[in-house]
Design goal:
Layout: H1 34-53, H2 55-66, H3 70-86, H4 88-118, H5 124-153, H6 158-166, H7 168-200, H8 202-208, H9 218-236, H10 241-263, H11 270-301, H12 310-339, H13 343-348, H14 351-370, H15 377-394, H16 401-414, H17 421-429, H18 434-463, H19 467-504
Helix pairs in contact: 1-5, 1-6, 1-7, 1-8, 2-3, 2-7, 3-5, 3-18, 4-5, 4-7, 4-8, 4-11, 4-18, 5-6, 5-18, 6-14, 7-14, 9-10, 9-11, 10-11, 12-18, 12-19, 14-16, 15-16, 15-19, 18-19
């Protein structure tokens, strides 16, 4: 059932082969500093995804402060959560140009700025810009590097590492909810957002921990960029061969001149040396930006576009429907509990808390199972999806607290497949294209999260029931799963048919 890049006949040009022994370019792979990367990603999930899970506390404060409709006020939280994921493809461009560390540090500053500026909001529309857009973009600039770096540092235990790092979402949901509630009670919501902005600056520390696998001096790094940029641009068809040779010759000439001046700097003036070093830096930056943009452009629009991979396209379609099926229960379960007169039991142990707690264990356990040598990550991923969609379709049929608690526990455990998404994505496109590919996937998830809950509310306004919201979202989710099942079969069948026709000819 599992379809690797070789099975579907799709290759991005990397040298990895199924069954071959993975090459360890760095002793920190699967150990050493790799666990610091997991810790960094874990803290990022606490500060970003955990904070977004706790925005219900601030939503109540905004309703009282600005006296706007619930629908309009809810868009502040929806924008923040949606934009964090939707900007994924553009964050992939930043990663290609600047690397994960710089992108995450800049994102941490932007996220903190969004929280702090929101403390001075005079109306809801002001929050759309400061919290929804500014903090949302900043969150996206930290979240994607946190996922990508774990994939780069792990080979044998990728699923477990991703599972451990993403458990920060569940822990963050509890910690940040308690923290924001305490801060709002003691200092008011404005001071609470200001303090949270200061806490969010720790995202810059998390970004600083995301050091690249290869730490080389500037000249070696520059030479490597020169040698690889020509191949990248050539494969993209962006520049002609003559322009490539001209740019390469120019850059090499600049580097040679600078190195010559550095060795003979004693006989030259300091002013010329300073000017040539600036020229070297500008030339290096130009090559890096061009190389990053060429790689990003090739992934989306070039001959080796990610969209030529049918299985990956099916994965995107699945992502458009999957995330809303997980978000809708969080948003609408409290209202369902009131309709079934189960508020007393729910106040003792909320159903949403059951989902969050079991979700933590689900990520770790599914990660451990997927890393077993005899187990396919793809099969575990699909089985978890089937379990989740079954729970979504069954939930409206249960009207007792015990029944709902069991279903919510299954939803929490099966939704632990989120930790497997980067692993499956990497298996489809390779580590080289993980940032751009996973950026598209979380963008689809963001669209799902942005429009899923309002769609469920719209269905309720028409039918006066939440049942149809779960049925429709579950059926759409099932359509996405079917796409994942049939596309690998079609992709593997086509080359065989072609070879048969050629043999007949």
């Amino acid at each position: 059932m599992y379809a690797s890049r070789e099975d579907i006949g799709y290759d991005f040009g990397d040298d990895s082969k199924v069954g071959s022994k993975p090459i360890k370019p760095n002793p920190n792979i699967d150990g050493g500093w790799a666990w610091m990367i997991v810790l960094s990603s874990f803290l990022v999930h606490i500060l970003i995804m955990g904070s977004q899970m706790a925005l219900g506390i601030l939503n109540i404060e905004w309703l009282e402060e600005f006296n706007q409709s619930r629908g309009l006020t809810a868009w502040v939280s929806s924008l923040s959560m949606g934009i964090t994921l939707i900007v994924g493809p553009f964050i992939g461009l930043f990663i290609s140009m600047c690397g994960c560390r710089r992108t995450a540090i800049i994102g941490g500053i932007l996220n903190a700025l969004g929280w702090i500026l929101s403390a001075y909001a005079s109306n809801v529309h002001y929050l759309f810009l400061t919290f929804g857009v500014t903090a949302g973009i900043g969150s996206g600039m930290v979240y994607l590097p946190a996922v990508v770096m774990v994939g780069q540092y792990f080979q044998k235990r990728r699923a477990l590492a991703q599972g451990l790092s993403t458990t920060g979402t569940g822990f963050g949901a509890f910690l940040m909810t308690a923290l924001l509630k305490y801060l709002c009670t003691e200092f008011g919501w404005r001071n609470a957002m200001f303090i949270q902005g200061a806490i969010s600056l720790n995202l810059c520390v998390c970004g600083a921990l995301m050091r690249p696998l290869s730490l080389k001096d500037v000249s070696e790094k520059y030479a490597k960029a020169l040698s690889r940029s020509t191949e990248t641009i050539k494969s993209n068809g962006v520049l002609s061969e003559e322009l490539e040779k001209k740019d390469k010759a120019t850059n090499e000439e600049v580097l040679d001149r600078v190195q010559h001046m550095e060795t003979g700097g004693k006989s030259r003036s300091g002013r010329n040396m300073h000017g040539l070093r600036i020229l070297k830096t500008v030339s290096q930056l130009t090559v890096t930006v061009r190389k990053g943009f060429a790689m990003w452009y090739s992934s989306y629009f070039g001959a080796a576009s990610l969209f030529t991979n049918r299985v990956f396209v099916a994965f995107i379609i699945w992502a458009l429907f999957a995330y809303s099926s997980f978000v809708i229960p969080f948003i609408h379960l409290p209202e369902i509990v009131k309709q079934y007169n189960l508020s007393r039991q729910n106040n003792i142990f909320p159903l949403t808390s059951i989902i969050a707690i079991v979700h933590i264990f689900g990520k770790v356990i599914l990660g451990i199972i997927s890393d077993l040598p005899c187990i396919s990550t793809w099969n575990v991923f699909l089985m978890a999806n089937f379990t989740l969609v079954t729970c979504i379709l069954t939930l409206p049929l249960l009207q007792t607290y015990v029944g709902l608690a069991v279903i919510c526990a299954l939803i929490g455990f099966s939704s632990g497949y989120f930790s497997l998404m980067p692993v499956v994505t990497e298996d489809l496109v390779g580590i080289k294209h993980l940032a751009n590919a996973y950026g598209i996937i979380i963008c689809a998830n963001g669209i799902s999260a942005l429009f899923g809950p309002p769609f469920a509310g719209w269905i309720y306004d028409i039918t006066q029931k939440y049942d149809f919201s779960f049925y429709i979202s579950g059926l759409l989710y099932m359509v996405g799963i079917i796409f994942l099942l049939i596309q690998p079969c079609i992709q593997k069948k086509q080359p065989r048919e072609k070879s048969t026709e050629e043999a007949q000819v």
